[in-house]
Amino acid sequence: MPAKEKTYKCLNPVGIQESVDLFPLAPRLDKNKLDGKTIYISVGAGGEQGLMIPLPRRLQALYPNINWKVTYAAPHRTIAGSIALTEEEMKTADALIRGVVW
Amino acid sequence: MPTLSTYEKAGIPSAFVIFPDQQECWKEAARVVGLPAARYVCESRTIPGHIDVERVIPELMDALTRPLTAEEKARGRWEMPDKRILFEGTLEEAEEFYQQEEIIPNLQNALHSLYTDGLPIVVPTEERVAAMLKGTSHKPNELIVYQEDHRVGDRIFQMGSSGKKGEPVRFMPMRRTATVEKIATIGVMAGCKPEFMPVLLAMAESGGGCGDGRGGSGYCISGPIAREIGMNFDVNLLGPGNRANKSMGRASDLMWRNLGGEIPSVNNCGVFGGPTGNCFPENAEALPPGWKGLNEECGFDKNQNVLVRMGASGGRSGSWMPGQYREFQKSGHSGIARRLGVKGIPGPHNILEYIRSFWVDGEGGFTFFMLPEIAMHMYEYGFKSKDAIYEYMYKRSFMPLKEYRLHSVPDVWTNAWKGIEPTSGKHWMELPEDYMVPACPSPMANCIIVMGAGEEQLPYTGGASRDAYSVDAWR
């Protein structure tokens, strides 16, 4: 009878994933009560100009009773560049569109 | 994503524009920041914006107004328990276990290894890992934390790594942490020796091959430890054959896969994949008189050992073989000499002037991997310090604004020309077209590392990193 082959305990190289609390989404706007709402359009740093130039214009034309506010992010790869709304803007924002994220 | 998620958490309904091929990366990034159901709309990569906008707008308005589903209203907790022993069995069984692959639908059903870089590994048995741990005085269960304060990149900061002494390093893209024992485990898997451990731990402290989640492009070791552990300083130092250079470089890829949790097109939206794969030594003994080593440039003593991660913008190379560079310096022959107007005049000449169009068009600073031969020519030409070259590169990068506008990257760095031009303090749009602006942001945006041996080649890469991580702190 062959001798039993030696076994080994082998260690785990995978990093430690800390637990994450998962949050619900914010309640959505009532699509029948959009007039007078303030929606921010935050244009990400430097681009994507192909879409983000016509987008505010078309939204304003299609939804003239919404208060559209366009903001431009600080330069790419900076902390400020990832901020879409200031604390002051957050107080008046009913919703946010941000593009392009990547 | 970490910042953007705060608005939704604060009660502001949000819709984000991304690209179709980034949906899985979006979902993973959203889950890591606790907002797995964050709504998004995909912009086309090919349809012009003024046409695509008609399709995008109804989807955006729907994302802002469609009532939430039960799943989107739910709270919860995402947990992935860590276990120290991953597998128990014979060596043959273990080899098979660590070589497991999974199908990634987003990669056209390509296979991706669960624990390796795709190649077979040395099985990390408890005994082998214990032997590896003898290469450091740090305890196995010690968390990888910053040994000194560091200025980490903004993106890395946002993903949870503060860079502050004593705080944990979070490995991108999944923001995981690691212990000294996990680094030793990876060292075994990569084929490292115990004496490499201080370098591996410094590598982990620097982010472990993960960069901003899309990988780095190599590590330079500056200081005497490179010779102590037998690194190759000579020709082919980026090629195969030297265990220290290769296995430590490989360890960085294994850190990216295991510590960062990297899976292409699932949580990493990179394009070609960061070619980490190499750890190479600076050749401080070959520095021209008065030139500082990389460790000294980073604020350390020349006898101290540091690891510096290179930028991730890919490599380029000037190559003038056979004999063109040599003849240019030796006797003023070759097209290089003709372009620079020194035909028939023996060197030393400034080769950087010949490739000026390369680095100016590259828009930004550069790191040059400079052979000792070229470094000595630059010294003899008149650059008595590296700083003198950095200053020369900065000054030679100036160009009229009308020319600068014809480059690609400034659209981004100037924030679509809405920001402030740094040398004038004025808005970009206010400046006259003939105003001279630098393509290189500052002299210190450049870096020279004297390394290797041989002649006639000058590889370089974008950006300059002087954020050095002490190897000695991890002995």
Helix content of chain A: 10-25%
What separation lies between the terminal Cα atoms of chain A?
Answer: 62 Å
| Largest sheet data of chain A | 3 strands, parallel
- The pLDDT mean of chain A sits at 89
Oligomerization state: heterodimer
Uncertain spans of chain A, ≥5 residues at pLDDT below 50?
Answer: none
Structural class of chain A: alpha/beta
Counting DSSP H or I runs of 4 or more residues, the number of helices of chain A is 3
Could you please describe the fold and organization of this structure?
- The complex is a heterodimer of chains A (102) and B (475).
- With 102 residues, chain A is α/β, with parallel strands linked by helices.
- Chain A has a domain at 38-99.
- Chain A contains three helices and five strands, in the order E-E-E-H-H-E-H-E.
- A three-stranded parallel sheet of chain A has the order 4-3-5, with helices on one face.
- Chain A is elongated.
- Chain A starts with 7 loop residues before the first strand and ends with a strand.
- The model of chain A has no long low-confidence stretch (mean pLDDT 89).
- Chain B has 475 residues and is of the alpha/beta class.
- Chain B folds into three domains: 4-73, no CATH class; 91-281, no CATH class; 315-397 and 439-462, no CATH class.
- Chain B has helices spanning 4-9, 23-32, 49-65, 70-73, 91-98, 126-133, 154-158, 180-190, 197-205, 225-228, 243-258, 294-297, 324-331, 334-340, 351-354, 356-361, 372-381, 386-396, 401-404, 410-413, and strands at residues 14-18, 40-42, 76-78, 85-89, 101-104, 110-113, 219-222, 279-281, 306-309, 315-319, 366-370, 398-400, 436-438, 447-450, 457-462, 468-470.
- In chain B, strands 8-7-9-16 form a four-stranded mixed sheet. Chain B has a four-stranded mixed sheet with strand order 10-15-11-14. Chain B has a two-stranded parallel sheet with strand order 1-2.
- In chain B, helix 9 packs parallel to helix 11 (243-258).
- The radius of gyration of chain B is 25 Å and the shape is globular.
- The model of chain B has no long low-confidence stretch (mean pLDDT 93).
- At the A-B interface, strand 1, strand 2, helix 1, helix 2 and strand 5 of A face helix 1, strand 1, helix 2, helix 3 and strand 3 of B.
- Strand 5 (95-99) of chain A pairs parallel with strand 1 (14-18) of chain B, so a sheet runs across the interface.
